[in-house]
Amino acid sequence: MDLERIRQGGIPLGAEQRLKRVGAASTPFFTSDLTSKEYALAQASGLQPVAQVMGSSVVQHGWVRSQVGTYWGATEVRGMSEPWNLARSRAFDRLRQEAQLAGADGVIGIEMSVSGSLDAAASVEYVVFGTAVRDSAFPRRDDDPVGMCALSGQDVDKLRRIGAEVRDVIGHTTVVSMPLQMGSNYVLNSSGWLGGAGNMEIPEITEGVYEARRMAMARVRSQASEAGANNIVISVLRHSIEHREYDAGPGGGRVHYFYVTMHILGTAIRLGAREPYPTPMTGPVMSINLGRGKEHS
To answer: Residue 294 domain-assigned?
Structure first.
């Protein structure tokens, strides 16, 4: 039964039943991953934590039409980007389902964990989790979706105090293939020995990182526009680079190319959407995170 529910994009029956009990309780016993400071500020902003919620999806790579870009520049490999974005979409759909079942108006503090490989036989995993909250100041209408954001409790409180409204969580993954031109191939094939005495930048890889970011940000901006937002706060911008090579045949040597994977997660917000709550912010606030469990001198 659970497998069929998951195939249809749902969540396991046991999780649904548990969250329905949470949703039916006026003051549920809750679990969350908020810090004590986040919890206090959420309460002060009219947000009552009700449950920790999550969403997960594992997607197997399908057939990849092209793995190598052209010598004219970076090329998106959609067959490798799409598994990531399908997994992200399903994970967030399940997160939203859990929040709705818990009777929540929104989810704050969303974090993501991704793992996987670009090998043809591999799969990718996308996991998101956050804290579902009820909003006593601006409750969600029945026809409105659950508001979700990747911001901490402190940041949500600051946004509410300047009259900003969280519209939705947004994200995208782009995989770009970047082949090396003749000069860079020569450097890699000679292991640097014939390429020069000093360090050398591989400009094609640098271009690939910029291009992957440009493509991913274009999709994220489009999502924000569809959500009715006029600003974006990026929480995660993470990339990885994987090296591939093949033998070009007699006299051709080894041909090198690289995959650049760019993950972006953020929150779409609308400035000036409502009156500041509970009180306007009186001045700019800078937050410095020195890390947890460390001593600093």
So the answer is: no
